[in-house]
Structure formats: C-alpha cells, structure tokens
Amino acid sequence: MLKVDRPKTLKANALESLRDAITSDVFKPGERLVERSLCESMGVSRTVVRECIRHLESERLIIGVPNAGFVVATISSDEIKEIYEIRIMLECSAVRSCALNANKAVIAELRLLCNEIASCLQKEDVMQALKLTTEFYKLIFTTGGKHVAWDLVERLNARISRLRALTLSSVGRKTKGPENLRNIIDAIEQQDTVRAEAICMKHLREAADIASKLI
After folding, report:
1. Euclidean distance between CA atoms 188 and 152, whole angstroms
2. Which of 28, 80, 112, 156 has its CA 20 to 30 A from that of 163?
3. Could you tell me where the DSSP H helices lie in the chain?
4. How many C-beta atoms lie closer than 10 Å to residue 177's C-beta?
C-alpha cells in the first residue's frame, strides 16, 4: 500500500506518493496504472488520481497509450545521454559560481546535507537521500546565483531522481556518490573553481555511464 501522509494537501501527498513509487521502481517501466487500484491503495478519489496522473504526465514519468490508458514511461538511452549532458552543463556552471560565492554558513549546510545523504544511503533510505540531494544542489545553484538554471533543473528533477535511484543500486555508488559530493564541497570551500568543476563533471560522467549500462 502506498503511504499518504496527511500534513500536506491530499493531492500533494498522493502526488508525492505516486511519484516516489515510480522513482523507486515499485511501478516498473511499461506498467499500466489502474485508476481503481490507485484509489484504493492511496485512499483518494478518482478525481485526485486523475490530477496526479496529469501532473506526472507533464513530468514525463508516465505516458498515455491509445486504448490502454497510462503506463510508466521508459527512459531511453538517448534520453539518458541528453539528460546527463544538460546536467553537466548546468551543474558544473553552478558549482563553479558557488565556489566564488559560498560563505561559511553555506559550506556548513552543504556538509550537513552531504552527511545526511550518506547516512540515509547507509540505512537504505534511498528516497530520503534523493530528496536531500535535491536540496544539496538547490543550495549550490542558488548560492551561485543560477536561479534560471535551477528552474530548468527542476523541470527535469523527476527524471533526474529516477536515474539517481537507478545508479544508486550499483555496487559502491552509495559510498562513492557522497565521497564525490564531499570532494566538491572541499573545492568550493577552497574557492578552487577549476577543481570543483572537474570533480562535478567526473561525478556526473560516472553516473551517466552507470545509468546507460543498467538501462
């Protein structure tokens, strides 16, 4: 059963629950989403489920199939390549700018987030690690003044998180990922823009290779 917490609006909870189920592979690529089953699982109306489906369709996590309803989208190798190309371009630029602007408070917050990400991964709490990773990068982008770039990243975040969840299943990535983030923070703290960008690029290229092989 998909858990829906109540503090948020019912629709927001249902949307997050369904998105997380797709991201964590509870619903597999190509799997058909049945409205009645989703209503029963989440304890919400068909209206709410349909609103969630429309939203997730806009995020390209699900697609409509003629005479078959909606199914979980499959990410192609070409899409993976393009998503990581975009991430390399935007994130490396953000890391470089962050290194020029970060103060001690930002560095401390980045280290805290990185430690929490590592802790979640060690406890196999991948979904919380993904949410914290989004916060980690948001702080880097906003510190670097890359607000428009972050808007672009947010539009891809659903698919980015899906790929992150996939790559974290590979051997050693749960340790290597946080290690790379710590190295990025060290370079930012030292205001070493060249090293920060190089580590970020290496981190993303490693992830891209893993995702391509797994797909």
Report:
1. 23
2. 112
3. 10-23, 35-42, 46-58, 77-101, 104-122, 126-143, 147-167, 173-189, 193-214
4. 23
Residue count (the chain): 215
Which of residues 169 and 36 earns the better pLDDT score?
36
The band of 170, judged by pLDDT with boundaries at 50, 70 and 90, is confident
Contacts of 172 (CB under 8 A, 6+ apart): none
- Output the pTM of the full model: 0.86
- 24/194 Cα distance (integer angstroms): 34
| Spatial contact of 159 and 58, defined as CB atoms under 8 Å apart | no
20-29, 58-67, 92-101 — most confident range: 92-101
Instruction: Please report how many Cα atoms fall inside a 13 Å half-sphere around the Cα of residue 115, on the Cβ side.
Output: 6
